[in-house]
């Protein structure tokens, strides 16, 4: 069952209709937007692009068909950590655009840095900044005050205006931070719109984080969960699509919960994917175990940064220096320091990481004849030797020594814990 003409899906002379899966309800058609997106994924080969398109079509085929007027459903998409979930939901969004969905809402990022990373990726992949056509109308954390509400209303009105050519229909694309204040702004905007007959796709990125009801045992609703319910109540025709790498909680909640998935799909990682199986089974030599004495706890209070943390930092900076020296080196690198499931201890590690970075930068910018300089360089050499065991093609250490101070200086340290402020302001001080 393909979308009917009442939904006025964008047209393309070259249309590939992909068969729905055994559980699919309709057959999405691949048109301009999805084809252009695939062309933009230059790091994928033809097989990878075909697999990505097929997976997206299978997911969308289980969503509420765009020609229906009033219905909602919930879906779950599971993928390995760092296996291309963002690429998947971007493709599903493009395919939804191709098939007449008039609005796509992406709920992402529980912190300002994470939201910026996700929304920036979405804008880049869909080429929103530099494309000549205007197939999307982009809104980032829209507010009920100002012109956002009117702009969304006018964009949706074009779909019902027979005098507007189908090629000029724009899909509303909203990226909103998973923060109760930002979600409340979106609720107020939706209150001002007539959304009857408007097919909407809602994508909940990292659906296991903050979305589920954490107060269910108290017969209450947590704030973010309540906001999501309010959003869904205002969308008479929508699919709520949950993306996560840890599906246990969405799968185990009460089946009468509105966030309990009615269908589920599993993403297949590409051939070059490297995950837990590679690190812990196939190549355990890549993993360094943190000694029990270096793990903080109530009975093991650490008064200074553990040596394993400092070793890891030195290894990271050696890798950054390699990226600066090697002709084909990877210049953008990141390191996540996650010492505890609680946010409190993170501030101590924030302080230790910042202090180590500042001290090493000061020493490396000093005189090579300084004993502290020589001692620090020896410590970096030991980190280099350890790394060279699993990366034998690295440049010689002598070519890295002069670049270490650049590697340390250019590294930004940010804390990504969410704050309690309504704006979700971050302490921008962790690695």
Structural class computed from helices and strand pairing: alpha/beta
Fourth CATH level, the homologous superfamily of the largest domain: P-loop containing nucleotide triphosphate hydrolases
The strand line-up of the biggest sheet is 5-6-4-7-8-3-9
Any idea what the CATH architecture of the largest domain is?
3-Layer(aba) Sandwich
Rg over CA atoms, rounded to whole Å, is 25 Å
Question: Sheet bearing the most strands, described?
Answer: 7 strands, parallel
Sequence of secondary-structure elements: EEHHEHEHEHEHEHEHEHHHHHH
The residue-averaged pLDDT reads 86
**Which percent range describes the beta-strand content?**
5-15%
Main CATH class of the largest domain? Alpha Beta
Distance between the termini: 50 Å
Question: Which residues form runs of ≥5 with pLDDT under 50?
Answer: 1-8, 419-431
